[in-house]
Amino acid sequence: MTRWKLTCEYEGSGFCGWQRQGHDPVSVQQVLEEAIQKFSGETVTLQVAGRTDAGVHAFANVAHFDLERDTNGDTIRDAMNNYVRPHRVSVLTAEKVPDAFHARFEALNRSYVYRILNRRPPPALGLQQAWHVQKLLDLGLMQEAARSLLGQHDFSTFRAQNCQANSPIRTLDRLELSREGEMVTFDVGARSFLYHQVRNMVGTLALVGTGQWTLDAFQKAFAACDRRAGGPTAPAHGLYFKAVTYPKITSDNVDGAQGEL
Predict the structure, then answer these.
(1) Nearest-CA neighbor of 248 among 99, 104, 49, 101?
(2) Would you write out the chain's pLDDT as a tens digit for each of its 261 residues?
(3) Are residues 39 and 81 in the same domain?
């Protein structure tokens, strides 16, 4: 039995999210697990670093599974990409890892990107790949508000009501805002996030950027530690799972199967 680490990208608008919900609507997990079964004859369950919602995209989400068949990473990658068609998901790499590796629990940091198309005319291209905000955003004001979110805080103001996390306390390592032409990008990093935390932070910061909220109003909402005090949830289609980092894996512990991570 060998443990394999998959890195995959997908366009989320065609899926009900990562997690398997049944055969209709289709999930990313379902498509990938069925591809593995078709080429190997084995039924597996994928464990993933980021359980993305319906409409959320991924540049490099990571999952793992165990396989009895003796094969190699290139064969797994190419066979899976053959069988996932026509769904808009691609396996980028398949790598052998130690038996102790866990895509979710071993993650040191997860990062997301959120994109806002900031212009008056509506998009004709990439409609499901960025949130369209017509009013000009004040990037400087949003950056000033965003700085107060860095570090360890109670993020209840940005926590979805149905979040199942045991605690609202999280440590936000990075929240960088930039503009390139008409695209405003949020780059966010932390070990873990609350349910809808990124989308709720973006939706609330956008109120500051459009002048609907002052910086003081933003600070008071954050300090309230109450979701009802926060701004709207930004649409799912602007969010991308960017990357996940893990402790270094050496060739010695891969070959030894049970090596330390």
Answers:
(1) 101
(2) 999 999 999 999 989 999 988 666 899 999 999 999 999 999 999 999 999 999 999 999 999 999 999 999 999 999 999 999 999 999 999 999 999 999 999 999 999 999 999 999 999 998 899 999 999 999 999 999 999 999 999 999 999 989 999 999 999 999 999 999 999 999 999 999 999 999 999 999 999 999 999 999 999 999 999 999 999 999 999 999 999 999 986 545 554 332 222
(3) yes
261 in a domain, yes or no? no
> How many domains does the chain fold into?
2
Q: Is residue 260 in some structural domain? A: no
Does 138 qualify as catalytic in the annotation? no
Q: Give me the catalytic one of 24, 53, 138, 187.
A: 53
The whole domain housing 102 covers 2-106+246-255
The DSSP bridge partners found for residue 186 are 114, 177
Same domain, 181 and 225: yes
